[in-house]
Every structure is written in C-alpha cells, then in structure tokens.
Amino acid sequence: MKLNSIILSLITTLFFTSCNRESPPNTGAELETNPEVESFTVRNIEIRQDIINELIARNVEYWINEDNSIGFNSKDAKQIDAIGFEAIGAYAARN
Asked: Three-state DSSP class for 12?
C-alpha cells in the first residue's frame, strides 16, 4: 500500500511538473474577445488517452497544439486538474 502511495505521488509530481501554462500574446483589444488559454503535456500514453476520453465525455473544449501538448481554456483549469488527478489515480490503480 505504501509503495502505491509513493508511485502515485511520483506520477502526480511528474504530471504537474511537465505542465506548461501559457497565455496568448498581448495584442491589446484582441484579449477581450479571446479567453486565456493554457496547455499541458502528458508523456504517458495511457494517462493522456484517459484524459482525452474524459475531456470528450465531459464536453470540455480542448485541442492538440503543434508541440503535441493539450490546450484548453483557462476557465476550465479546475475541471482539467480534477480529470488529470482521476486519470493518474486510475493508472496507478491499474498498475
């Protein structure tokens, strides 16, 4: 049981340290019509697919950036975090 907790902590740390939160460039009035966006990278294929499946199931808007990161609107950050934690926990439970 303790080993599972350590593994889950390690995976969670790796997941969130690989996140790249970014805002669009400041172009003046354009910021008023475009919401801020963020992105994150998940290197584990299983966790990434679980996150994408859950984003689709919950109708959360997302896109795949040119660098293969997953982009999303900042307003959805709490929901994205919850989905990420669930996906990591499910992966840890399976392995």
From this structure: helix
Tokens of 14: 């790796």
Into how many domains does the chain fold?
Answer: 1
Q: Is-contact 40 52, C-beta < 8 A?
A: no
20 token code pair: 């790249």
pLDDT tens digits for 46-60? Answer: 999 999 999 999 999
Cβ atoms of 46 and 13 within 8 Å: the answer is no
Q: How many CB atoms lie within 10 A of CB 92?
A: 17
> 45 near 68, Cβ under 8 Å?
no
Residue range 24-48: mean pLDDT, rounded: 71
**76: Cα within 13 Å, side-chain hemisphere:** 19
The enclosing domain of 84 has a CATH number of 3.90.1150
Please list the residues that pair with 63 across neighbouring strands.
71
User: What is the residue range of 85's domain?
Assistant: 2-22+31-94
